Q: What sequence folds into this?
């Protein structure tokens, strides 16, 4: 072996010091999306969803949403809080949603496009717990929140933060969101999710992102800069805080990911067709509501249908049913020309082979299905209850590899290499040929985490598993973290706003 | 949670006692194969391959092969042992190979179809080492060989054995193959690979399989029952034992998997287009030779192109380049209407998250690319140097999940479940509904290995990783193993043949 180690590779950028990474880059998916439903099946599910909305209806617990839905022509039973929708009205409203939109970041180079052939990877959002190999599993807290955000910032393959990777339970609940927003807006130059439970947390996020981007609230109307998840409470219920959050986001022109979180067997029937029909009804309901609030408001078709283990009631993720549910969801989203969100999920309690194979199942299913927004893309463990530091690194590797699978294969005279093959001839090797030497630095994917050394070398160096190596890697990334540039005036503006709001909340 | 544990599920068969498994079943791939090459690119690679065969040629070290090639019209330089092929002759010979064929097992229910939309999963073949969590890594040996074959036998998702999961290095090298064949033919009722290095090991396999299937040697000509891998020594060399083995197999109407094992950067140029062009040239050469020996002989387009790490020279598997190389290979195989073989591979030295994510990359790439024969499907570790007991179980889970992804989604009035959704209504749950109770036993995939319990339950039960659970599972399978039925006369016939051949070899 005569090739010397490569100190620097052209296509890499060394964010976070010595850990090799691919650069931040927009991704488009070149593959025709996989289908598990025939066109007729898609239409049957569509029609069933419209019948669910017309005949069964959705229970809506928010008063403002009931008012808006009634005013838009839905049938509203205020006593039962039940909303039924004429199929033609649903179709008309859904058709008004944009097929594609751009979400604006503090650094315009980190803007992301949602829809069409674009593919965006988000980090984990929402866990109550955090874990790593050294400290084990513990409640989410402010110190870990900040560290985890730093890692999301420096991992180039993660396009977008996803609403708080873990809950900082040691901060006061009334003002927690303000600290989270300040951290997100100052630590990251990427787009980030705001919270969606109620109008207040949305309003505060709008103020923070306007300061961070140094734009007016009015301009935010035309430049969506925030995104949030609106979950239905399946089956067929939209609660008060979620409906208020949806209304506040749509009214401000910000992006809503309308996501029924359903586990077949518990929150939907056990059959995949019924699970997708019900998910579709709930998603369309939320999409329609965004368009009632503000025609043309950016909205994403969220899908998160998995199943429970019928022997124990435990939720399962990354299963065959999960994969087929995701692919079917993508077909439904494209039926309505809406951007589609899926997830990287596993039920494993530990960062092991199961966590990796379930995540790969989820990621491949989503990407083959043509996903636009891969939420929970990196860090999710234990059915979403825990944000794991080591899983974040494993997932970053999985996402980087997938991003390279999407890159085109060059086929031309130079790449076909006939001269090199003739020059080396039978029984030779290509290490030293000119064709190799001109290209070897950038020819192949270079991993973050994978260890390709032979058994003896690997064993002599401590016989570490991928999870143990991931532990070393996130610590190194954190030690070498440097935040992206931020104008002092911007930082001050955000700090002043947060301080003022905390005083207001304390005095209220 | 009101649903009781399910003691038996209709679609499961309890091979090997208490471990739940899907039944042995033929698989067809419903998805349109993924493409990374345009039609023009496929033709450019094809033309480059023909130029390699015409202008550079293949070095052939076997005398019989040189004779046959010369007689068939190839240009043979006997001094340099270099064979050059007219493009039209290559195309004509390759066109004579069958697009699809059946490989016959001792139990006709275990026959497999190679080609078309069929998908066959093979076990690991060829490692020098064997490992498990208890005994670590050690040289392949006879006791482990027999145990590993038992596990391959009882794992229903494995359709086919693949040529010895590990080398029994403690058996005499001259007669080792006879003990291996006797073990394969009596322990398994599935199809198995024979060795391919030379005519003798092929001839002995033919005798054993004829006794095992109780058919004449003549009938084997029309009912291929053996398969072997013929590797080129890339670049562009076919050695003596391999060419003799190829000739013996093709002459007997048995299946050859013509597989250049190439690592881009070492055995081919670093560019994927060149690697595929060279692989294609070598594969076509072997395919053509099978058709010279016996027109219509069954042959599979083998592809095993990965790359080395250019910083260290280590081989890498399950990488983005590996995935794209596999998908491109499938396109080339379909260009010639040949069955296509790919692999499940990882470079990891240990059964960890890396082993799982690299294997998933390889399996998804192969299946999305429309693979017919997934060789090394279960058990491969450490770049193929080691057969791992725990990896065998991890891979069985990966393959089972993939086999379920390929099953169709039912969409009809019953599965759409509108009545059940209306009956449960907003805010309810589906555990107790009639729609659920009628279907819950078979609604969802039931894993072999995955643990979906919550963190607390999992931790109280020993906090085992998937690899540690896999260790328990293979031991249970082995403890409960029962071989498939075998006529005593068949067992005696095989034993007598082996004893006679051992005497002959000792006397020679």
A:
């Amino acid at each position: 072996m005569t090739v010397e180690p490569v100190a620097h590779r052209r296509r890499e950028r060394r964010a976070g010091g010595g850990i090799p990474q691919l650069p931040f880059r927009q991704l488009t998916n070149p593959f025709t999306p996989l289908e598990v439903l025939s066109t007729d099946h898609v239409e049957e599910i569509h029609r069933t969803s419209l019948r669910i909305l017309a005949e069964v209806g959705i229970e809506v617990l928010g008063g403002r949403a009931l008012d808006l839905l009634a005013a838009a022509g839905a049938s509203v039973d205020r006593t039962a809080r039940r909303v039924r929708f004429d199929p033609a009205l649903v179709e008309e409203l859904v058709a008004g949603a944009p097929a594609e939109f751009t979400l604006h970041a503090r650094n315009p180079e980190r803007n992301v496009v949602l829809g069409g052939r674009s593919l965006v990877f988000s980090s984990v959002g929402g866990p109550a717990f955090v874990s790593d190999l050294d400290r084990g599993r513990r409640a989410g807290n402010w110190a870990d929140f900040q560290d985890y955000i730093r890692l999301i910032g420096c991992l180039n393959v993660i396009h977008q933060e996803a609403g708080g990777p873990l809950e900082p339970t040691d901060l006061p609940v009334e003002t927690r969101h303000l600290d989270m927003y300040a951290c997100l807006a100052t630590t990251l130059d990427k787009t980030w999710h705001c919270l969606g439970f109620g109008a207040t947390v949305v309003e505060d996020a709008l103020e923070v992102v306007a300061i961070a981007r140094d734009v007016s609230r009015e301009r935010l109307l035309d430049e969506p800069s925030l995104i949030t998840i609106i979950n239905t409470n399946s089956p067929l219920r939209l609660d008060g805080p979620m409906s208020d959050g949806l209304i506040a986001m749509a009214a401000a022109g910000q992006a809503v990911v309308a996501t029924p979180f359903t586990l077949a067997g518990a929150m939907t029937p056990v059959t995949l067709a019924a699970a997708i029909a019900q998910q579709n009804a709930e998603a369309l309901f939320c999409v329609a509501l965004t368009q009632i609030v503000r025609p043309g408001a950016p909205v994403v078709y969220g899908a998160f249908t998995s199943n429970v283990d019928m022997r124990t009631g435990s939720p399962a993720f990354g299963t065959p049913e999960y994969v087929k549910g995701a692919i079917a969801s993508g077909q439904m989203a494209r039926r309505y020309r809406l951007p589609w969100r899926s997830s990287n999920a596993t039920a494993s309690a530990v960062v092991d082979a199961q966590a990796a194979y379930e995540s790969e199942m989820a990621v491949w299913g989503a990407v083959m299905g043509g996903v636009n927004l891969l939420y929970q893309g990196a860090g999710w463990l234990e059915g979403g209850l825990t944000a794991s530091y080591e899983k974040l690194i494993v997932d970053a590797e999985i996402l980087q590899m997938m991003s390279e699978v999407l890159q085109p294969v060059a086929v031309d005279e130079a790449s076909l290499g006939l001269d090199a093959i003739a020059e080396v001839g039978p029984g030779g090797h290509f290490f030293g040929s000119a064709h190799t030497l001109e290209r070897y630095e950038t020819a192949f994917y270079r991993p973050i985490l994978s260890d390709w050394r032979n058994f003896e070398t690997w064993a002599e160096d401590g016989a570490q598993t991928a999870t143990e190596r991931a532990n070393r890697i996130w610590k190194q990334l954190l030690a070498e973290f440097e935040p992206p540039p931020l104008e002092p005036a911007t930082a001050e503006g955000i700090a002043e706003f947060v301080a003022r709001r905390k005083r207001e909340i304390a005095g209220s």
Q: What stands out?
A: Residues 76 and 83 of chain B are 5 Å apart (CA to CA). Confidence is low (pLDDT under 50) at residues 1-16 of chain B. The longest strand of chain B covers residues 255-264.
